[in-house]
Amino acid sequence: MFQKREMYRIPNLILITVLGILIDISGSTLVSQKDQRVEAQRGIQVRTDQWLKVEQVTGNATYRNLYNYANRPARIGDRLQSVSDEISTGANSSVVLSVDTGIGTIYVAENTTIKINSFRIAADNGRITNLLVPRGKARLQIRKFTNRGSQLNIQTPAGISGVRGTKFTVITRPNGNMVLSTLEGKVATTAQNRTVMVPGGFQNLTVVGEPPSIAVPISNDPSLRYVINRQANGNGRSISLVGYTNLFNTVKVDGIEQSLDRSGKFSVQLPAPSSLKIQVKVETPQGRVQVYEIPIL
């Protein structure tokens, strides 16, 4: 009898052990894919003690980081220190960012987004900061780096601008084209496997899908020429405004930014009947502004 009881007990122990394994395996599948993704990001993230810090906020600015998917208002002291962390500004708003180790300052203009692409450490322990400006305007003031391997690169849909110590402005237009103006030092613009150096006092244009243009002297001229076309057809009357300015300028018609072609031309179709006048704001990369009140009717 004793031997029979032992024979029955052994299978019971084995069954309990197997059931325990099954419970552990099935329990692991209860973790959501979102939680798994977050845990994976936490596991592979490498801290390099590099960041951008919010020093000043004017108007409406939004902060978003890796661990906070819901946007919230940006606050002084916020840090962008992980890939995809970003700051976005609204109309008539701006943000001032400081770069780690005090190497410089980034002035983020209205209707602009700046995002962390990556942080890296060079072979000589220099810091490499890669930023993305998918829209808007940013002005950078960066001192000369101590380490030769240090870099600060600004990527736009059209290309990349790399600096080692300078003052410059980068603008991403609605069509993705990039305008670069160098105030001091030198900036290298790269696109389509071609690099063009832009020295102080010069600027250039990089069109999406094309190499950078040659550098030309900065023209801080917000002047505007325009023509109003009025046409009547079977559906009524149509009105269009065709304007011309320096191709490096930024143009807004009633607050909406326009895309300029290589000659500095833009065209706006206006509803008819339209208001008695429209407002055209022309701003140079250096910040000189001229506002035009143009009568339509």
Structure commentary:
This protein has 297 residues and is mainly beta. It folds into 2 domains: 44-217, Jelly Rolls; 225-295, Immunoglobulin-like. Helices cover 13% and strands 49% of the residues. The strands form 3 sheets. It has a 17-stranded mixed beta sheet that branches. It has a 4-stranded antiparallel beta sheet with strand order 21-20-23-24, with no helix packed on it. A 3-stranded antiparallel beta sheet has the order 18-19-22, with no helix packed on it. Strand 18 (225-233) and strand 19 form a beta hairpin. It is globular and about 70 Å long. The N and C termini lie far apart (111 Å). Mean pLDDT is 83; it is low at 1-46.
Number of strands: 24
The low-pLDDT segments are 1-46
- Look at the structure and give the CATH class of the largest domain: Mainly Beta
Q: Provide the helix percentage.
A: 10-25%
Strand content is over 45%
By CATH, the architecture of the largest domain is named Sandwich
Task: Give me the strand/helix succession.
Answer: HHEEEEEEEEEEEEEEEEEEEEEEEE
Main sheet properties: 17 strands, mixed
CATH domain fold name of the largest domain = Jelly Rolls
- Integer tally of domains: 2
- Mean pLDDT score, rounded? 83
- Globally, the shape reads globular
* Class by SSE composition: mainly beta
Query: What is Rg?
Result: 28 Å
**Termini, distance in Å?**
111 Å
Query: What is the number of helical segments per DSSP (H or I, 4+ residues)?
Result: 2
InterPro entries: FecR
Domain FecR protein: 85-187
Organism: Pseudanabaena frigida
Protein name: FecR protein domain-containing protein
